[in-house]
Design a protein that fits this description.
- The protein has about 300 residues and is of the alpha/beta class.
- It has two domains: about 140 residues, Periplasmic binding protein-like II (D-Maltodextrin-Binding Protein, domain 2), CATH 3.40.190.10; about 130 residues, Periplasmic binding protein-like II (D-Maltodextrin-Binding Protein, domain 2).
- Helix content is about 45%, strand content about 20%.
- It contains twelve helices and 14 strands.
- Helix 2 crosses helix 11 and helix 11 runs antiparallel to helix 12.
Length: about 300
């Protein structure tokens, strides 16, 4: 009987040790630097990238509570305006840096690394009350959204659709999502003057959800979070999903999301270097959690090598 009790006790102790080790391994995955760090990590930029970086900062605070890493969301263009002057360590972007922005960075002595975080599918959405529009082509989107001096009605696109005026919602002009849509869909022609613009994607979601005759576009994560209020339109017959975005089938509205990191901050601020390392180690999982699509694992590994 004593032998059985001893064996039972040893089994319990062994199980506890295994459990403790497993928990330790989990902490090891996301712990960042073992060194206790402090200071600030200053970032601003894309409202599309914001949900990923907000999640990163929340997780990072658990392992480095003395590092302050608030995330701004003034839009991709707004973020770059600060970044090229050296005012921020990181610029979150839903498009690549423009040539004129890169020139300003060079003139300001700002060298940077471009790092990809995840994939997004720019999503065109309508209200749940809209029971006629299920799919639309890029050419139809252009015809609908472009400014040509006329009042746009749904029936202008397809005669069987309602003869009702379309209400437009779009990210603001500082947004990389606005730039992307303007370049890819409108081919840099003027957007409809009656479009409601906002840098706050939640404002756009509310506007589209609340008007039967509305249409709007924003990052996939904002649609995924509000599927109960919105319907996404198929583009050229393809619905935005994790699979179609990752495969590139959801074209031409699939795109990568970025962070741009000031090289001087990486070199001189250990908290920035550690925060960026933590971001790349965890961006894939966190991107999926907030509704985007992670990159292949090897892409994160390659980029981790860059920051070393």
């Amino acid at each position: 009987m004593k032998k059985i009790k001893v064996l039972s006790f040893l089994l319990i102790i062994t199980s506890l040790l295994v459990f403790t080790a497993a928990c330790g391994d989990k902490k090891e995955e996301n712990k960042g630097s073992e060194e206790k760090l402090s200071g600030e990590v200053i970032s601003d930029g894309s409202s599309t990238v914001f949900p990923i970086m907000e999640a990163v900062s929340e997780e990072y605070a658990l392992v480095q509570p003395d590092v302050q890493a608030p995330v701004g969301s003034s839009g991709t263009g707004g973020g770059f305006k600060k970044f090229v002057k050296g005012e921020t360590d990181i610029s979150n972007a839903s498009r690549e840096i423009k040539e004129e922005e890169a020139t300003l960075a060079k003139e300001g002595g700002v060298e940077y690394l471009e790092l990809e975080l995840a994939y997004d599918g720019l999503t065109v959405a309508v209200s749940k009350e809209n029971d006629w529009a299920k799919d639309i082509t890029i050419d139809e989107l252009k015809k609908l959204w472009i400014e040509d001096g006329t009042v746009k009605k749904w029936s202008d696109i397809r005669p069987e659709w309602p003869k009702e005026e379309v209400k437009f919602y779009s990210p603001g002009t500082d947004s990389g999502t606005y730039d992307y849509f303007n370049e890819i869909v409108l081919e840099d022609q003027q957007m409809n003057k009656k479009t409601t613009l906002s840098e706050d994607d939640n404002v756009l979601v509310s506007g589209v959800a609340g008007d039967k005759y509305s249409i709007g576009f924003f990052g996939y994560a904002y649609y995924a979070e509000n599927k109960d209020k919105l319907t996404s339109l198929k583009i050229n017959g393809v619905e935005p999903t994790n699979e179609t975005i990752e495969s590139g089938k959801y074209t031409p509205l699939s795109r990568p999301l970025f962070i741009y990191v000031n090289k001087a901050s990486l070199k001189d601020k250990p908290q920035v270097r550690d925060y960026v390392k933590f971001t790349l180690e965890n961006a894939g999982e966190l991107a999926e959690e907030v509704g985007y699509v992670k990159l292949p694992d090897e892409k994160y590994t390659e980029q981790l090598e860059l920051i070393k």
